[in-house]
Amino acid sequence: MEVKATTILAVRRDGKTAVGGDGQVTLGSSVIKHTARKIRKLYKGQVIVGFAGSAADGLALMERLEAKLEEYRGNLLKASVQLAKDWRMDKYLRRLEALLLAVDREHMLLISGNGDIIEPDEPVLAIGSGGDYARAAALALYRNTDLSAREIVEKSLKIASEICIYTNDKFVIEEI
């Protein structure tokens, strides 16, 4: 059975970064949870990570990233590169089906099991079932308003929740 879940969105503006995620988890054609927490603060609260995909896989990858952050003293870019290498090369990790979105004060990264580490051109990044909707809304708000990063995340996730059937309006938002 296919699990569909998640919209995760990150926006940086005026030195603040907000990352938000919805709480819906869908199994087949049924919503089985409304308040899942898909974002976490790592490394002494200096990094925020969200995942899209399998919950077990996403949480396992978050744990791996946290270990890499400890190893590289909070350097998100180095930790992400090493995680992506391991994810791509390790027989067990290769099977994990999730995407990570990770941010600190300097970087905003999408990390995949294909070895991708993508930093967007603009300070807006989204993953998950409703990611494209949230990203489009966030870019429009970022380019055309003076809203804060948090306000853009809230409004964009709300728009995504009105379009994507796999996204609800029970948001968790973290800021650094």
Could you explain how this protein is built, in words?
- The protein is α+β, with helices and mostly antiparallel strands and 176 residues long.
- It has one domain (3-175): 4-Layer Sandwich (Glutamine Phosphoribosylpyrophosphate, subunit 1, domain 1), CATH 3.60.20.
- 34% of the residues lie in helices and 31% in strands.
- It has four helices and twelve strands, in the order βββββββααββββααβ.
- The protein has helices at residues 55-71, 76-89, 131-144, 149-163, and strands spanning 3-5, 7-13, 16-21, 25-27, 30-33, 39-42, 47-53, 98-103, 108-111, 117-118, 124-128, 172-175.
- A five-stranded antiparallel β-sheet has the order 6-7-8-9-10. Strands 11-2-3-12 form a four-stranded antiparallel β-sheet, with helices on one face. A three-stranded antiparallel β-sheet has the order 1-4-5, with no helix packed on it.
- Strand 9 and strand 10 form a beta hairpin.
- Helix 1 crosses helix 2.
- The longest helix is centred in the middle third of the chain and has 17 residues, at 55-71.
- It is globular, with a radius of gyration of 15 Å.
- It starts with a strand and ends with a strand.
- The model has no long low-confidence stretch (mean pLDDT 92).
